[in-house]
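Problem statement: downstream parser choked on a complex file, so we are re-checking the raw output for the pyridoxal-5'-phosphate run. The parser issue turned out to be on our end (a line-ending mismatch), but while we're here, posting the original submission so the record is complete.
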Amino acid sequence: MVEFLSLKRVNAPHEGAIQAAVARVVQSGWYILGEETYAFEQEFATYCGAKHCIGVGNGLDALSLILRGFDIGAGDEVIVPSNTFVATWLAVTYVGAQPVPVDPDARTYNIDPQKIEAAITPRTKAIIAVHLYGQPAEMTAIQAIARRHGLTVIEDAAQAHGAQHAGKRAGSLGDAAAFSFYPGKNLGALGDGGAITTDDDALAARLRKLRNYGSSVKYQHDELGVNSRLDELQAAVLRAKLPFLDAENDARRAVAQQYMDALAGAPIELPFVPQGVDPVWHLFVVRTAARDTLIQGLKAHGIGHMIHYPIACHAQPAYADQVWPALPVAEALQHEVLSLPIAPYLSAQDVQAVTDAVRASLS
Ligand SMILES: *Cc1c(COP(=O)(O)O)cnc(C)c1O
């Protein structure tokens, strides 16, 4: 028996520190936009190698607030990966802009830089680079394209806290980055939470207002803002966990390496990690045309699994009102990818139980 993911086991090593953090906030009598949030913002900005961090309510709001901060809206187009969680697309839709999907590289599952230029039009304002499954997108190529066409580069780093590209961390690889602290992410809160990182002083100042009713002076509203703030309790919990993120990401790397070694040569496609990229393994995704057989086998062995994602964004009922371009890679992936259990707490025996079950299922 190996569960796909136990959040209880993820948080167990932090239980004492979390309880102390919660007690501190309860006793402070201050629950929104206070010391814990501002301290976490500083600590997370430093961690990412960014100048500013703005705590917000969730990852989706982080993305849509960044778009608003860059004045992207009606009439504008934003390039998005076809293979991503729906939030990447929804943020673009929410601000009134048009998501323009680009298919992924069939090996990395991240947006294929070679297909981006064909999707650029005079209306294109930005590219959202998603570091999917915890692996940074090909930022060097994406940045070069963006510079040639005068586009903004936004990172969706919701699955990539701590991941590195050419020695720099996610959150410092574009003009601004969106993070989620949804409980299942590599750095997870005990509820919803999110953050934006950027080096842009003016953007940061504007986002601090936009997240708080468009206000920096109480009851004076300069812009039509929203209510999307990381709260003091979640910030305190995240502060307790952040110092251990690197060690937990290392534990995930060890699990991923064991999977790679034990499944080498198995009739299954393993993740491909290009040179210069250091993923944090939010998910460990394998690919096979015999996915149903693999699922039956895993079930028989008591091994948890998930599919990320079973329906591509353009194939979602919510997006059925539009005609989308052909996206053959995303269409194939939705039927063939499968995520194996990965978490910092997994033992070598757990991982071996998974790899034995995978091999037995496909033999
Ligand atoms: C989780 C996630 C989001 C959204 O984060 P929430 O905090 O759930 O709103 C956005 N993009 C990606 C790639 C994600 O995995």
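For whoever reads this later: Residues 58-60, 84-85, 87-88, 130, 156, 158-159, 180, 182, 192, 194 surround pyridoxal-5'-phosphate (CB under 6 Å).
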